[in-house]
UniProtKB/TrEMBL annotation:
Protein name according to UniProt: Transcriptional regulator, TetR family
Residue ranges: DNA binding: 39-58
Keywords per UniProt: DNA-binding, Transcription, Transcription regulation
SUPFAM superfamilies listed in its UniProt record: Homeodomain-like (SSF46689)
Pfam families hit by this protein: TetR_N (PF00440)
Native species: Streptomyces atratus
Domain HTH tetR-type: 16-76
């Protein structure tokens, strides 16, 4: 039986809102000046916080964009947490990925736009790439208990771990491939379209996903 997720406190919501505001300021400055032309002071000033507040939340200017890069993974995980065991795990994953990445409306398109710009900037910035890889590693680790519940008691733990890794990589590779192009946020070549294709390729041979 699924459990109701714990709701964040008011303090936690305020902290998350401040972090997201800083992340958006950092992403905007990276787009304008590049990471090399942006300082932590610039980001703090753009987001309207003190420099000490910036460093309370983030270790470096590249770290500041983490909340933007992790937004899609959080939506995906929330959809999976709401699913019930017993249904096709492959179907559950495909539905969640599609919903999380399909970007209906201006807000979703804006989120994908930020991601595209940051991934392009990361091509020439090792520290920014490290943030992206860390976001994906964290996503995989947090996805594992969710898939363990959905797979059921009889599932092989090794197969579930492999599924968490493959699902995370499917989304990562899809977003990276999409960011290198000018493909739209919906339809053929979009993040959702590519992610579903990657899921099928990576998971097609897994016993956990056989009918």
């Amino acid at each position: 039986m699924s459990t109701e997720p714990t709701q964040p406190s008011l303090t936690e919501r305020r902290k998350a809102a401040t972090q997201l505001e800083i992340a958006r300021a950092a992403a905007a400055l990276f787009a304008e000046r590049g990471p090399d032309g942006t300082t932590a002071e610039d980001i703090a000033g753009r987001s309207g916080v003190a420099l000490r507040t910036f460093y309370r939340y983030f270790r470096s200017k590249q770290d500041a964009v983490g909340p933007l890069l992790s937004g899609g993974a959080e939506r995906w995980r929330a959809l999976l947490e709401a699913a019930e065991p017993g249904d096709s795990l492959a179907g559950i994953l495909e539905h969640a990925v599609t919903e999380a990445l399909r970007a209906p409306g201006a807000e979703g398109a804006e989120q994908l736009g930020w991601t595209r710009g940051l991934l392009r900037a990361a091509a020439d910035d090792p520290a920014l790439r490290a943030v992206w890889y860390r976001v994906n590693q964290d996503s995989e680790e947090r996805l594992l208990p969710v898939l363990t519940r959905l797979a059921g008691d009889g599932a092989d733990p090794l197969e579930v771990r492999l599924a968490a890794a493959a699902a995370t990589d499917a989304v990562r590779v899809a977003l990276e491939a999409w960011a290198e192009t000018d493909a739209p946020t919906a339809g053929p070549g979009s993040p959702a379209d590519l992610a579903v294709r990657c899921l099928h390729e990576l998971m097609g041979g897994m016993r956990l996903f056989k009918p």
